[in-house]
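Whether sequence alone determines local backbone shape is best considered at the level of individual chains. The sequence in question and its structure tokens are set out directly beneath this paragraph.

***
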Amino acid sequence: MLKKAFISLAAAFYFSFTAHAGDVEDANAALLKKDYTTALKLYKEAASKNDAYAQFQIGSIYREGLGVKQDDAEAVRWYKLSAAQGYASAQFNLGVMHDKGQGVLQDYAEAVRWYQLAAQQSDALAQLNLGVMYYNGRGIVQDYKEAAHWYQLAARQGLSGAQFNLGVMYGEGLGAVQDYKEAARWYKLAAQQGYSSAQHNLGLLYHSGKGVIQDYPSAHMWFNIAAAGGNSDSAKNRDITARTMSAQQVEQAQRMARDCMSSNFTKCD
């Protein structure tokens, strides 16, 4: 049986090196050199003057435990100072921490609130996670149409996880009219960024001929590439597909996979 991958959420935390002048620029330079003591000292000097970026960086230093004892609660304290000034990256990180219960009690509604604030500033990761919250009905009323809306915004910014999720929505007809061709388009955009779940699901479409012309070598190629990225279901699906192919077709598909990967996913047709 061919298996498919489904919705993903971004759990990454932001760490930034935005250009600033004075203490913050020197702090960034120290951080890059892994001189965490100097970096923290300079960020705190800037933070004392209500620099939202510096407050955010201090939060990330405590979140990652860079030169200090790792402390999620202290990270939350600094992120809140930055977020209160409208700093989107801090708002997103607070959303993740409330989502996961790190440094604070787990609170999905509060996570949604912070994701919304960042998403409204066009933060792509926040838009993706807000879509996932709507999709799962976590901290907010479940609404597939609203989920698809936020995925669309993040996907247009090139975020591969959002492109994949949007492909799922079109493929399943959730929050949008079912459209396999549109699903294939979004899967391919994510697949070309190396997103293994999108590569896997694109293989499914080529295997079934949904949204694309049925093409077993292309299906095998995408399953093979996803399997190389560690997707065990893709390895199984590749082998299932190979049983419907001639030895020459399998050899062709393997060559296509090598060419696709060696070209950094620019030559995959």
Notes: The CA atoms of residues 73 and 103 lie 4 Å apart. Residues 247-262 form the longest helix (16 residues).
